[in-house]
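I have been asked to look over a protein record a colleague put together. Alongside the sequence sits a line of tokens, each denoting a local backbone shape. I have pasted the whole thing underneath without changing anything:
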Amino acid sequence: MDVKIKLTGNTLTACIEGDIDHHNAKEIRECIDQKIEEESPNLLELDFSKVQFMDSSGIGLIMGRYKLMHILDGKLQVINIPENIKKLIKLAGLASLNIIKE
């Protein structure tokens, strides 16, 4: 698991590589949250283009970042989502939050 984070203007993009599961979700969350605290972006993009697997810990990761960005008056977008993971996100009801960027 690896997270590459870059800031472009007021957009913080976190490119997550590998699996998101209960073994590494905390580490991913802490890495992203630290950068959010440091940079105070208006938009957080979670780039899932290199994620092969995600369990319910990934849903928690998305929801937690959504709530954090909402508290900071920012927005969250989940981008470049593989189809198998997009199905899981939609089944969890997260599509109703309008965070999926097609």
Observations:
- The chain has one domain: 2-97.
- Residues 4 and 57 are 19 Å apart (CA to CA).
